[in-house]
Every structure is written in structure tokens, then in C-alpha cells.
Amino acid sequence: MKIKDILEKKRPTVSFEIFPPNARMSLGQVMAAAARMAVQEPDFMSVTYGAAGGTKANTVKIASALQDYLGIPSIAHLTCVATDKEQVKAIAVEMREAGIENVLALRGDVPAGMDYPSPERYAHASELITEIRSLGDFCIGAACYPEGHPESPDLETDICYLKEKVDCGCDFLTTQMFYDNDLFREYLYRLRGKGINVPVFAGIMPLTSASQLKRIDSLSGARLPERLSRMVGRFADQPEAMMQAGIVYAAEQIIDLLASGVDGIHVYTMNRPEVAARLMESLKGVVTPRDGGKR
Length: 295
Ligand code: FAD
What we know:
By secondary structure, the protein is an alpha/beta fold. It is 44% helix and 14% strand. Helix 4 crosses helix 5 (125-135) and helix 9 packs antiparallel against helix 10 (239-259). The longest helix has 21 residues, at 239-259. Bound molecules: flavin-adenine dinucleotide. The site of flavin-adenine dinucleotide has 25 residues, from strand 3, strand 4, helix 5 and helix 6.
């Protein structure tokens, strides 16, 4: 099912993200984690795609298994920075044949030492979106950055390129993780002011261990509000307390976003079913299940 059709029926949505196997997790372990997350009845689940690493082979396989075996609508990510134009075509055909209707079209981070831009590959997500549009009847999403993309000189420039990206045929946007809802609301106001009117899913990553901080910083540079920094300072060396504090912070953040009328919440669940379960338990009665099921 296309995400834009899910939004027609139910808004706000709640979705989860998983990543394909890597050195620490086998395909079987990833699928077992996905099955445990599926119990929470997210409206859909997304599967990431390695920009340059060895994870790309399984993205389509996992996205189609989510739909076929777990009954969860899925979205497959696709990056173009290290995937040449012919490969993009082949992957789009593979997706179509596997019944995948949703694609998150991304550039990916430019690997160190890579020849970029190169005539063999699309330089920006906007070009990838144009190509995917021409390859099938996909519902296409793209990434956006409430604190600005790290390579952008400023937020204004980033939003101008985002407008181009949306005009190329993007149906919705998902934000990079953020921890300050006011910042998201200001960003959304600016997007709407620029004529970017597609649905925007708020990306939430529960901060459940101090070791995640380095990763969050390298992935997004997201600013931590004083209140969250204090929690980390206080509970960093107590794993259970840090987990609980991170879940409660994320749940409060989500409740506030829902109260502001957000289109959807996308949870960076990072293949951790226990995080998905604890978060959904904290949101019981606040978020509604997929297809009128019981949560
Ligand atoms: P683009 O939209 O191409 O933007 C990249 C930079 O170029 C920005 O600074 C933008 O302002 C600028 N720009 C855009 N268009 C132009 C133009 N025409 N001329 C000049 N400058 C321009 N990475 C992965 O490897 N795999 C994943 O599965 C993955 N999933 C993600 C999911 C979400 C929701 C998010 C927010 C990020 C994800 N990423 C993923 C990370 C993403 O690939 C990186 O942030 C990457 O650096 C940028 O990708 P993009 O699609 O936003 O690029």
C-alpha cells in the first residue's frame, strides 16, 4: 500500500525504521527483530540502504518480506551516491516486481575519496526522484533536515534545494532526528512558507544509552536541549535509568508533536524491538493502531 494512501485513511501515522544485516546482526536476526516490532502495529516500516557499505543487497528482500510475511506496508530506501544509474534502474525494477510501492530516495553521504559528482551517478536526491518517477508508479519520499543538512551553508539554502527536490515529484518528507520540537515547528512553518506542502514525518530517535550520543552527533549533529543533556549527565552510567529516561523523553516529544497536528511520527527504532515496545507502551491510548486493530 502506498504511504500517501495510508495518510488518506489515517493521520497521524506511526512508523518504524530498521536497517539490513551488518557485521553485528545476521539477516535472520534482523527479521526476528522486525517481527517483534511488527507486533506493535506500526502503519509502515522503512528499511535503510547502505550508501557505500555492504548492506544494500538485502534492502529490497527485507522490505518485501515485511509486506509478504508480516503484513506491514514497507518502504525501501535507495541511495544514489555510490549506485550508478544502471543499478538504480535495476533496483527499481526489482522493487516493482517485489510489490514494493514506496521508495525513500536519498543521495547518501559521500564516501571519503570518492569521485563526486560523477557522470555515472546521480549527484542529488532530486535527480534520483526524477528517475524513479519515470520508472514506475511509486510513492516517493525524501529526507529533510530541521537543523539544516551538514553540507549546507545555511538553512535557507537547504530549504531552497528541498523545494527543488519536492518539485521533482516527492510525495512526502521524513526529517532527520531532532530533540527540540520548537525547532521542528519553526522549520515546518518555513517549509509551508516556501510552498512545500507535502506531508512531513517527524523523525524521533529515543536516546536510550550514552553511547548513542556519538552516533547521533556524527549522523545528524542534532542539538540536545538542556533538559535532555541533564538527563544524560545524570543517568549515563545507569543503563536501565538511561533507557527509561530516553523513552519517557521521546514519548513526551511525540505527544507534543501529535498535539501540534504532525502528519506522522517516524521512529528510528534501530532494530531494537524492546525500544519500540517500551515507547508504544508509553503512548498507549495516544496513538491509534494500524487498520483499526487493538493496541
Ligand atoms: P540531497 O537532497 O541530495 O542533499 C544533499 C546536500 O546537497 C544538501 O546539503 C542539499 O542542500 C544539497 N543539494 C541538494 N540539491 C542540490 C543541488 N541541486 N545543487 C547543489 N546542492 C544541492 N543514508 C544512507 O546511506 N542510507 C539510508 O537508508 C538513509 N536513510 C535516511 C533517512 C532519513 C529520513 C534521513 C533524514 C537521512 C537518511 N540517510 C541515509 C542519510 C542521507 O543519505 C544523508 O544525510 C546524505 O548526506 C544526504 O542525503 P539527501 O538525500 O538528503 O541528499
